[in-house]
Amino acid sequence: MLDWFRELSRAERKGFYGAFLGHAVDVFDFMIYSFLISTLLAQWGMSKSMAGAIVTWTLVSSLVGAIGAGLLADRFGRVRVLRWTIIVFAVACFLCGIANSPEQLMVFRMLQGLGFGGESSLCMVLVTELIRNPAHRGKYSGFTASSYSFGWGGAAIAYAITFNLFEPEVAWRVCFFLGILPALVVVYLRRNLEEPEVFLKSRAERGRRGGNDSPMADLARVFRRPLLSKTLLCSLLSGGMLGAYYAIATWLPTFLKTERGLSVFGTSSYLAVTILGSLVGYVAGAYATDRWGRRLTYIAFAAGAFVMAMIYMVIPVSNTSMLFLGFPLGVLMQGVFSGIGATISESYPSRVRATGYGVAYNLGRVIGSFFPLAVGWLNSGRTSLALAIAMVAGVGYALVMVSAALLPETSGIDLGEAGGGDERDDRDTAKPAGAPSPVAPAGKPA
After folding, report:
1. Which residues fall within 8 angstroms of residue 416, CB to CB, at 6 or more apart?
2. What are the counts of helices (DSSP H) followed by strands (DSSP E) for the chain?
3. Which of 17, 259, 299, 370 has the greatest number of beta carbons closer than 10 A?
4. What is the pLDDT of residue 441?
5. Spatial CA neighbour of 149 closest among 274, 313, 13
6. ∠ CA(350), CA(87), CA(116), 5° rounding?
7. Dihedral pair phi/psi, residue 413, rounded to 5°
8. Contact between 357 and 205 (Cβ < 8 Å)
9. According to the UniProt entry, which residue ranges have a biased composition of type Basic and acidic residues (predicted)?
10. 413 pairs with which residues across the strands?
């Protein structure tokens, strides 16, 4: 099963390690806040609406950061800009730890959003461009995405340990500070990382042809034909899977405590099973996306995740049964994410790939940020929390299935030809690797 990984070159392995840890650090610090909300509500007398607003504005700023980092990366290089984003992220981790009010924390989390928006997007662009064999691109990006489980699990472990070692008023600050050290390790891992060959070729060709469009022209390109449909569908695809995940993951601890009557330890145990399942899901999805293709994998995992969410949230089962059901829920809920890095990267030409990825994935983040709010709204005297979670997650998974069905299958394409190449006005996005370019008959226009 790991023969493909043993075949990786030294550069491909270095890129994987740097992207894996960088993405895990992003997830750690994004998820750690969800564990700290109850403490901050008591510490500062912060309202729940303010706590939710901090999450929303962090995600909005991640869109700005991703677009900005994408524009810079398409001009100056993926590796160089990734070094900048992780530094911004590390500084923001420190500032969050010394915040003294909800307003300060919101500002510092927005700064952090700028960093992790660019970091998470460029990590996936980098690994998809580094891999030489397109037959393994789904596995390569899927295993990189599995770092989400490690970041999520790391946040749960850090929360449990620090709140056992320190008083709550100190422990929450320590949790934020913990994100600094691994960020510095990422800086070290990337010190000698080289730019992907496909990017260097694209930049060289752009220079030879005098391609000096402004950054805003590059941004506009992803919003006009023929890339516009890809941008919209990739945004809805990522928005659906992120929204469903946010709806479940944000409210699951509350559901377990309030509607299932579990203790803090019991809740942590149930979450641990779900997180373990999510890791298996990433691996399963990584292999499926190369074997079955991108679209079928999305549809199969999204449909399965919706069914599991309904069983877990709505059908009356014992707490013991729920403990075991958390594993397949995690598998399906996170396995749907495995191919997203490959799909979005394969939908854009090299000259705007980082920009396109930043726009599509992080527009999805913004779309997804409204799903937890929808759960809260439905639960405010309209329906039970369990049904609200299942209904909102169902909408997200429906978006995934519809978007996947409408997107072209991109499995195995040559990234040098993705989006139709850089010098042909981005036509023929889903051209398979090795497929010949269309040639017009004599006397007829191509």
Report:
1. 198, 201, 202, 350
2. 18, 0
3. 299
4. 38
5. 274
6. 60
7. -70, 160
8. no
9. 421-430
10. 432
| Residues with pLDDT less than 70, the chain | 1, 206-207, 209-214, 261-268, 416-446
Name the token pair of 35: 């564990």
Task: Identify which of 270, 281, 274 has the alpha carbon closest to the alpha carbon of residue 332.
Answer: 281
Dihedral pair phi/psi, residue 132, rounded to 5°: -80, -35
Q: Which two tokens stand for residue 82?
A: 């990734």
* Separation between Cα atoms, residue 435 and residue 326, nearest integer Å: 43
Give the three-state DSSP class for 413: strand
Following DSSP, what letter does each residue of 230-278 receive, concatenated? Answer: HHHHHHHHHHHHHHHHHHHHHHHHHIIIIIS---HHHHHHHHHHHHHHH
Decide if 377 contacts 160 (C-beta within 8 A).
no
C-alpha 437/C-alpha 212 separation (Å) is: 26
pLDDT digits (tens, 9 = 90+) for 380-415: 777 888 898 999 999 999 999 999 999 988 887 877
Residue 214: burial class (beta carbons within 10 Å; 0-12, 13-18, 19+):
exposed
Output the pLDDT for position 148. 82
Structure tokens at 169: 């008023």
Residue 202 lies in a domain: no
For residue 427, with 0-12 CB atoms within 10 Å meaning exposed, 13-18 middle and 19 or more buried, which class applies?
middle
Type of residue numbered 76: F
| Contact in structure between 433 and 417 (CB atoms under 8 Å) | yes
In a domain, 424, yes or no: no
Give the per-residue pLDDT at 210. Answer: 61
CA-CA distance, 85 to 265, in Å (whole number)? 36
Determine contact, residues 436/341, Cβ cutoff 8 Å: no
**What pLDDT shows up at residue 260?**
74
Joined together, the tokens standing for residue 384 give 């039970």
pTM (predicted TM-score): 0.78
- Domain of residue 352, CATH code: 1.20.1250.20
**Cα-atom radius of gyration of the chain, to the nearest Å?**
21
Q: For residue 41, what are the CA distances in angstroms to 49, 70, 257, 260?
A: 11, 36, 17, 23
Measured from the Cβ of residue 340, the count of other Cβ atoms closer than 10 Å reads 27
Q: Supply the pLDDT for residue 263.
A: 61
Q: Phi and psi of 432, rounded to 5°?
A: -65, 155
Q: Say which residue the tokens 């840890």 belong to.
A: 21
Which of 230, 248, 383, 387 lies closest to 294, judged by CA? Answer: 230
Number of domains in the chain: 1
Residue 1 maps to a domain: no
Greatest C-alpha distance within the chain: 81
Q: Is the CB of residue 248 less than 8 Å from the CB of residue 374? A: no
Domain span at residue 233 reads 9-188+218-416
- The size of the chain, in residues, is 446
Measured distance CA(277)–CA(281) in Å, rounded: 6
